[in-house]
Structures are given as structure tokens and as C-alpha cells.
Amino acid sequence: MNSEQTNSVIFQTLGTLSGKQVGVATLNMEKALNALNMEMIQALTKQLTIWAQDDAIAMVVLDGAGEKAFCAGGDVRALFHASKAHSGEISDIATAFFAQEYQLDYLLHTFDKPVLVWGDGIVMGGGLGLMAGASHRVVTERSRIAMPEVTIGLYPDVGGSYFLNRMPGHLGRFLGMTAYNMSGADAHFVGLGNHYLNSHDKEPLFDALASVDWEGDIGANHSKLNALLEAMTGRCAVPLAESTLAVNQSQIDELMSGDLSQVLARASGEKTIEPWLDRALKTLLAGSPLSLCLIDQQSRLGTDMSLEQVFQFELALSCNCCASGDFVEGVRALLIDKDRQPKWQYATVEEVPALAIEKLMASPWSSDEHPLNQLGC
User: Fold this and answer.
1) What is the DSSP string of 35-85?
2) Which end of the chain has a smaller Cβ tally under 10 Å, C or N?
3) Is 358 a catalytic residue?
4) Among residues 119, 125, 126, 176, which one is catalytic?
């Protein structure tokens, strides 16, 4: 296997019996649970663009260093410091970070060749943005997948406005408001994972990829990768477990139906001995009221927005959250001072003015000036 390395991403090419190659990108920030920083985003975008145009590359694999995580999110500490230094303003650092992250996510969503993400261990926030864009999303019995932005004054971005609204019933709304930790089975049920293997199948998978008779036909290569993964799934020692979300979907749908005040009233009055639901409801009730209002609005967008429109919308909303939302305070309380006592701008959802939500959702740029106005062109 040939390799190139930056400090934060290792790029390798795996030779195969067909003569074609498999490009492998390994996020290499193990101590930070492979959280994405700007260097990693830029390196991945550059290399994926090269591999997309290289006829020798049949497919691409994204994985993470270490045993704990594929990718636990983005570098919110850097965003915190930039946003705090430019309070009330859209910072250049936030704009550049989110714009380049969303361009990378879009690149993965529109990548013609097969892209396999090894979603073992922790996959959160920005990691889920990478995973959601891949054609082949492998989860395992060790996967722990979540969108925890409500706890830091943000909302499920990285395309969440696209993929959450395409989940069964009100599950997308539930995941966004509660930061619920999905198992591999849960992620498979809602469509974030579309293949299942065991955590110890990683090395056998790479061996098998080297033995596939890859072609120059991209469609054929997608079919060959599907067949390989399905065959390996059938031999898993630990079968796909029952999904908690699937079993309890009717209860979740009932809980999350109606307007936000109704959801909060049910969450406050819910008496449960189920640990998964108790933890989810406590997170919802402790989350940023601004974030809950934004997630509520996000859940009402439906499925009419194109992928390009989703990322353009999210760039404006994310930058606004950093400039004047609850993001700085949320990150301070959870990751900087670690007192876990955030002082949100509004104590309750009822106190959040409609105008505050409108301002956060309004683009700070004209259509001609929008940093992502060329997305998809």
C-alpha cells in the first residue's frame, strides 16, 4: 500500500488484483477522536478531487485512526475563539470553516465512484456529515452515532436539513432535539447506515477489496462493492441488533408531533423508566431554547430543498449561530470551562422572540455574494 501523510490525514492507495487501486483516507487525529479541523477538510477535498479524476482509482474508503472513533465532529474550539473575538459579527474563520466543510460534504454526496465510510465507534456532528455523503455507509455493533448540537447552541448541520427530514416519521426531529446516541442498528434503520459489519471485520474487508475485479465502469463497481458487503454481512458473528428507534417509533412519533410547545410539555411530563428515553428527554429539556426553536424550524423544511440549497441555507444559519446565537456560551459551558451550566440567552422556548429566529435564519449575504453560490455548478 502506497501512502502520503499530512499531520492529520493519511492517504494511501491499495493495490488490487484487477490492476485498479482503492484510495484510502484515514483521519489521523486519534487523541481528538479524529475531529475535523481546517487542515483535514482541505486535505480531504484536495485528495478526493484528485481521486475522482484518476482512472486508476476504482473506489475510496474513509476511516479513522484508533479504535474509538471514525470522527467525533468538528473543531468547535477554534470556532469558539474566533466567534468570541468577533462577538455579534460573522467571522471570516467561521465562514471559511463551514463553507469548506460543506463543500467537502457536497463533494462526497455527488462523488460518482463508490465511497465507503467505516463508521465504527463514535460518529458525531461533522463526522456524520462525511458519512451521510458516502454511497456505502458501514456501521458496526460498536457504532455510536449522534447529532449533539442542541447541547452547544447550534443545530444539526452538515446536511442535517437534508437527511433528517428524509427519515421515518418524526425520528429526524427526535434525533436533532435530543442528541440521542444511535446504535449501528438505529443508524441502519433511519438510513444513515446502509451496510452492517462487525468491528473486527475491518482488516478482512480491506483484504477483500484488494481481491475484487474492479472495472472502469463506475456502475459496475458500485454493484461489486454492494455484493461484497452483503456477502460479508451474511457471515457476521454478531448479527445486526434490534433497533430501539424502530421498536419505539410510534411512541417517538407521538412524543414529537405537533408544535414545539406541545413537544416540550410532553417531554416535561413524560414518566419513563427507559434509560435511553430518559437521557434523551433530559438532554432536550436542558438544550439551548434558541437551538430547539431552530431545530423545530429545520424539521418543517420538508424535502423540497435541493442539496445545494440545503448547504447554502445551513452556511448562513451556522455563521449566524456563531455570531449571535447560543454557540459561544454552549461551547464555553461544555468544552472550555466545563461547568455544564450554560446561561442561554433565553431561559425558555416561550421567551424566544420570533424575530430572533428570523434573524438567525436570514442570510447575511446577497445571492451573488454567498460563499457557496457556485455549489453544484
Assistant:
1) -B-HHHHHHHHHHHHHHHH-TTEEEEEEEESSSSEEE--B-HHHHHHHHHH
2) C
3) no
4) 126
- Tens digit of each residue's pLDDT (9 = 90 or more) over 170-203: 999 999 999 999 999 999 999 999 999 999 999 9
Strand partners for 196:
139
Q: Over the stretch 355-375, which tens digit does the pLDDT of each residue have?
A: 999 999 999 999 899 999 999
Active-site residue, from 63, 157, 201, 314: 157
The pLDDT value given to residue 377: 67
pTM exceeding the 0.85 threshold for the entire prediction: yes
To the query of whether residue 258 is one of the catalytic residues in this protein, the response is no
Reply yes or no on whether 215 is catalytic: no
Structural contact between residues 277 and 220, judged by C-beta atoms closer than 8 angstroms: no
Q: What was the pLDDT predicted at 5?
A: 59
1: pLDDT strictly greater than 90: no
Active-site choice (23, 64, 73, 74): 74
